[in-house]
Amino acid sequence: MPDDKRDRSPWYWLLLVPIVIPLLPFLYNSDAPRLFGFPLFYWLQIAFIALGVGTTALVYQMTKRRP
Question: 9, 11, 18, 57: most buried, per Cβ within 10 A?
C-alpha cells in the first residue's frame, strides 16, 4: 500500500476511551446519585453514548483529509 493511503494519526488512540471507560465497574457500581428518579447506572449509560459520539466526532474532524 502506498504511503499516501496510510493514516497513522495518534488521534485514533482516542477511540479507545469510549471502549475502556464503560468497562470500569467502579464508575457505576452504585445506586446513588439519582437523576430524575433513575439510578446512576441508567443515566451513566446515556453519558457513555454521548462520550462515544463526541469522541468519534472529534477524531473524525481531526483526521479527515482536507483538499
Answer: 18
pTM (2 d.p.)? 0.77
Task: Indicate left, alpha or beta for 36 from its phi (over 0: left) and psi (-120 to 50: alpha).
Answer: left
**Dist. CA 16–CA 22, nearest whole Å:** 11
CA distance 20 to 18: 6
Number of compact structural domains in the chain? 1
Dist CA 62 CA 11 (whole Å): 7
Please, which residues have CB within 8 angstroms of residue 52's CB and are 6 or more apart in sequence?
Answer: 18
Range of the domain at 44: 3-63
